[in-house]
Amino acid sequence: MAQIKITLVNSPIGRIPAQRKTVVALGLGKLNSSVIKEDTPAIRGMANSISHLVKVEEA
Question: How confident is the model at residue 42 (pLDDT cuts 50, 70, 90)?
């Protein structure tokens, strides 16, 4: 299956708690940290819900 690279580019400080929990659930901590995840509908949905905070690329 394909993989995607998710990078945290904006801070979750001041965002609603659900968005902060989504950032943590994806495994992102500090700014510019990246994770590589399988391209599943669940992961895509999480990334889309915080699309203003992250950058998504094909890996």
Answer: very high
